[in-house]
Amino acid sequence: MTSFPTSYSRAPSLIFTQSSMNELGRTSYSLARLNEQMATGLSILRPSDDPIRSATVSILDGRLEYTDQILKNLEFAGNSLGTIDNALGDAKSLIDEAYSIASEQLSSPSDPESREGQAIIIDSLINSLLNIANTESLVGYVFGGTNPTTPPVTFQNGGYRFNGERGGLTAALGAISDVPITLGADNAIGALSNRIQGTVDLDPDLTLSTRLDQINGARDLGVGNGTLLFSYGGGPTAQIDLSGADTIGDVADTIEAALLQYETDNSVSILGPGGVSVSGSGLSFDIAGGGNLDFTDQQGAYIGADLGLVQDPAVSFTTASNVGLDLDPKLSWTTPVASLQGLGGAALDEIQLNNNGQSFTIDLSTATTLGDIKSAIEAASDGVRVEISDDGTALNIITETAGTSDLALSISEIAGGNDTATLLGIRSYAADTPLSVFNDGRGIEIAEGNATAAENEDFTITLGDGFEITIDLSAGDIATVGTLISAINTQAGAQLTAAGRPTTDFEAQLSATSNGIEFTQSAAVGASGPISISPEQSPAAEQLGLLDAELGGGGNTLTSSDRAGVRVNNLFTHLLDLSKALKEDDTLGIQIASGQMKESLEELIQSQAVVGGYARRVDEEVLRQENKSVIDQAMRSQLRDLDYAQASTRFAQLSLQMQATMSVIAQSQSVTLLDFLG
After folding, report:
1. Which of 25, 88, 550, 618 is the most exposed, fewest CB within 10 Å of its CB?
2. What is the pLDDT of residues 81-103, one digit of tens each?
């Protein structure tokens, strides 16, 4: 019998073994990957596992992260709004108490000592209001507006200064990003004064460097960019693309280039050596040819009209008429004083500013820009702001400090001051000052519409010799300081003439320096005694400041007190007024303060309602964002998270598969040729 060497006794299949080993490797990898998935809870371990699902999961992750931030912001906003609501509620309770005190003092007899005691209570309420005004939330001071890091209200020189800003902070809150999380100067607690409204259009010169966004335009609607059409001498129409213009100089250069090209294309002569420039406040054309230059706007466009080049009816630019309409440049803090056409060439000098019971003489003679004027005024008195009016034509002056009437803001002229305040339009008591602003906006009351003439008399002016001038004012007479003065002089002149006296015995005029109306009697009349005022059927004399007027000139002049001073209209002012009226046993003052309290209560209720509305919107947005987050999380989980039940079953299958593969491999290694020969 033939024998075979032991080394030749085995006959393993190389292909079979390799196949089994590959299968083992795949199973082992699958088990390892599945093990990692089960450990992490994720079905997608890396983007390459499933690029489409991975990209979708990445998008959902970003959305969930954004939603989470929105929810945090909403929680932040809800906290702040809740704090504001509580503060407004505390303020309302405080004003309720003050209003009750005022009402009680008016409804029942009270002695000065009792009113003095009530004033002490009001002073304590003012201190409490200061704490409310400086309430803080997570965002900072809730009444600080856009400046929540600084206490909004501080005590200063007997008044309460508002240091905050207008408007309020907002946060990214999803679909309700306009919800404020702080309140600014537009509420009953934090407020700035009504403005000393600039009454003069300072009208700066137009220059080539004037930006388009710094002019009101010929239509007072600004100036945009676009395409302008033009023709010359009845020739063809051409276009001018002004879309790239930023300044008036850019406009002038672009138009000039287009006109020069038109000359070449059409063999005509349009411009002289002056080209296109500015003159005064409009665009100017040096028309050298004999034809008419006409501009038109494309349908639906207004750039030509805004630039003062297109009018209705149509206008042509010629050698005789070559300047466009006034473009009304806006003021800026860099505007040179020398460029202000509204000054009429006059030089600036000194003004008198009164604020917080202090008087300041401010020298503006060295100011070269509006910024210099702003700096000089604001440096003189803490708590005064200088602003450019919304339309960019005038200066407005504002006080930040709430106080009693003797702390009001006013601006007047000084002797030898070149009428600077009037030139700048910032005198607070001028001929064009509306009487409606007198007495903190309460205006002037007159007797009108009664049955007899005597019942309609408002006050009497008694000259030094005893001659009486009765004044009966109508609604038209009390429009402005100027109309009032005119009415008084007309009635006084008629009565003096009727009595056979010269009209020079008496004259009313705006005081040259003091903020008031000046009554003057002649020296001959004054030799008998001083001029005096007495009220009749209305409080007009008192409200005009005639009853506490100042005598001068040996009794020949009488100048009314300033009732046009500007004050902050907020709770501090009203409480201070009430405290002062109680201390002075001033029943009329208590009555006025009581009315202010009632208005303040209504404003606080309205503010609470607005804040409550914002809070409700926040709550609704929280619910919406939470629902959105739940949906996104479910979608992400479906795409990304591991199904443990399926994974467990799969793990068991792979484990059995691996064991079987290993068993097969082991058995294959033990098979010999003799097993086949049997």
Report:
1. 25
2. 899 899 999 999 999 999 999 99
pLDDT of residue 41: 58
- The distance from CA 209 to its chain's CA centroid, rounded to whole angstroms, is 27
Complete domains list, the chain, with CATH: 61-191+571-626 (1.20.1330.10), 212-306 (no CATH), 337-428 (no CATH), 439-559 (no CATH)
pTM for the structure as a whole: 0.76
| Model pLDDT, residue 245 | 93
Contact predicate 508/480, CB 8 Å: no
Pairing of strands 140-141, 153-156: unpaired
Instruction: Reduce the DSSP state of residue 113 to 3 states and report it.
Output: helix
C-beta neighbour count of 500 within 10 angstroms: 6
- Residue 546 tokens read as 């005639």
**Cβ–Cβ < 8 Å for 358, 157:** yes
Q: How far is CA 170 from CA 76, 78, 80, in A?
A: 11, 12, 11
Distances (CA, A) of 64 to 70, 218, 516, 629: 10, 51, 66, 6
User: Worst-scoring range by mean pLDDT, 39-43, 307-311, 623-627, 659-663?
Assistant: 39-43
Structural tokens at position 245: 């213009």
- Is residue 472 within 8 Å of 457, Cβ to Cβ? yes
CA neighbor of 530 nearest in space, from 514, 549, 511: 549
* Rounded-to-integer distance, Cα 670 and Cα 467, Å: 146
Mean pLDDT across the chain: 86
CB-based contact 240:227 (threshold 8 Å): yes
Closest-CA residue to 324 (of 204, 218, 216): 218
Give pLDDT tens digits for 547-571. 999 999 888 999 999 999 998 888 8
What is the rounded distance in angstroms from the CA atom of residue 662 to the CA atom of residue 671?
15
User: What's at 475, amino acid-wise?
Assistant: A
Q: What is the mean pLDDT of residues 329-356?
A: 93
d(CA 278, CA 175): 47
Q: Is residue 491 within 8 Å of 469, Cβ to Cβ?
A: yes
Ranges 159-163, 281-285, 443-447, 588-592: which has the least confidence: 159-163
The HSE-up count of residue 643 (CA atoms within 13 Å, CB side) is 6
